[in-house]
Amino acid sequence: MTANTLDAFRAELRAWLEENCPEEMRDGLMAEEGICWGGKDWVFTSEAQKLWLERCAAKGYTVPTWPVEYGGAGLNREQEKIFFEERARINARSPLESFGIWMLGPALLHFGTHEQKLHYLPPVARGEVRWCQGYSEPGAGSDLANVQTHGEDKGDHWLVNGQKIWTSYADKADWIFALVRTDRDAPKHKGISFLLCDMDQAGVETRPIKMISGISPFCETFFTDAVIPKEQIVGEENKGWDVAKYLLTHEREMISGGGAGLSGGGRALGAVLADTMDVLDANTRADAMRCEVDALAIGLTLERYKDQAEAGQGAGDASAMLKYMGTELNKQRHELMMNAGGSDALEWDGPLGNRAGDWLRTKANSIEGGTSEVMLSIVSRRVLGLPG
Amino acid sequence: MLADMARGFLDGAAPVTKLRELRDAGQTHDAALWKEMADMGWAGVLVPEEAGGSDMGFAAANVIAQEMGKTLAVSPFLSSAVIAATALRQMSDARAMVALGKIASGEATYALAVDEGVKFDPDATQMEAKADGNGFRLSGKKQFVVDGALADRLLVLARTAEGLTLFDIPADRAGITREASNMIDARDAARITFENVEATGEDVLGAVDSAMEVLKPALAAGQAALAAEMTGLAAGAFDMTVGYLKERKQFGVEIGRFQALQHRAAHLWCEIEVTASAILNAGRMLDEEPDNAEMAVSLAKARATNTAILAVQEGVQMHGGIGMTDAFDMGFYMKRARVSAEWLGDYSYHAEKVAAARGF
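^ Those are the sequences you sent over. The predicted structure of the assembly is below.
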């Protein structure tokens, strides 16, 4: 794409954003209270939030890189960079976040049929259907393939029984994509299918889990004779592990980038610390400088891998590296923010808002989506070729 | 492609054993090797074509430096081909073109004399260049002048009436005394004393009292290439270490089977991979947006410093006792890493630059 075309794209986009992004949506709020998750039961926090979602959805800007026919804007990598630069320039909030965008979309775009994409993706892009992810089970954490939730073959459907855990926002979701064992006789990785399940049925129940951060973003999800029609499978029967692995790569990149606030628009750590400390003491300042140096370099690595992916060289197992580095850094950043906040940071909903909750939440970063230790083992075996 | 070519050449012509031979012979320079590098266009990597160079750009210079780091190749590449060439190419006069031509051909080597104390701090330069008729008289002391004992010419930073001035003078001019430093990395560096050294207006590079206009881009190029060399050094030490984990047996199995060592190695690989991104970014910024490259360069040097130091420490630890012996090469990597960490600004110096650019 020529520089002229890109410049024209930027100018057009800038004008569109100026005209269409409501003033209230220009506070750059990335925290939970600012997120629009969408879904059947979503209650907009303001008219501006609703308007912003509708306007973006109409242009395909909730999922800018998805093809136009599935609800996106069909942007290429260069345009995508410009898109997020311009959105950050006016400090605009993201119009919509969801597991449908982050996870289901990439899975369907890669493994789904054309009909499945047409059926499932546009409602995700418009924020009409909210999805959650059913991967982990009480006995399947780091050993994720040890899935016990079972789907019994009933001809035109599976009858599903079992339990999922750590299903984020399952209590608010409309649909769940889940790993289900459809062949108990096959080896561990070979008998799993990737199924799409409507949660609006008697056989699916959810129960929130209260976390140390005081909130309950995670749930247990129970399947009791839940019915999943056969056409609601992504990829082939018993080959769901391929889909799961592919998605884990995406999840890791997302956690590493998003979690560390590296995907653009994030304030420099030093500036955040200065909000509460007029003069940074020598130790805090040294730690903050190291975090900033590392954050910038990890951010550059994220961009480098995206460029490689665009050029057809998948980052693949190296995403484990990004996940490990990004999440460990994010935990350190939040320790520093707590340190700088002093006693003001120690109150729930105190002068610094939810700083303590955010800090506690980051402790999950290096566990969810594969622990730091699992990431290091992946690098060790698959990248370095050390004997397993 | 340049990287493959460079690696092919260096593996054959400048493996670590070459550094060992030089050290054991008490030498700090390999003239024949530098001539070969010049013939391949490396000495002229930043010299304009009309002056006889190959003019491949900063990213390419970084690639060459990175490959040199892997085998600890001994050469005045950073001092002459990167720092001096970048300084000289800011000039447009015929004299500078001749000087650049001599760098490209390998005929003239340079060293940058800035440091006066134990830390890199150009702004704190005390050495005086006193006005004397139409020229100057330089008096003072410089230390840690890398490649300074053998260089043909010196770029000297000195204080003049209204600021700092950069001089380009032959190293054998009357009043200059060079004392070779016995460096831990077995490379050339010197302490240099200037006693009433005569310099004319012609010896000034750029404008009087405005050294930084010429020196700043040269330092940035040198810092980026040094960071690249250190990243190559880290990768070289790392490759040796992973190779060792795969063959060394203890308790009846390869030690690379132990998770404790796997995770140390994997962590180190992650650090090197992240630093490599900062190096690529610095080269790209120097080529495309040189006026905005300062943070990218400091980010690269800061990251490379910590990564190289980690790589050599882990290298020795995972090799065990053999890593501590002089007969084994890891020690060369460790010593070069420490010298490179200090040269042209240490971790704190560059982390401060990044912090300042990020508003704190």
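DSSP finds eleven helices and eight strands in chain A. The first strand of chain A starts at residue 131 and ends at 134.

Shout if you want it in another format.
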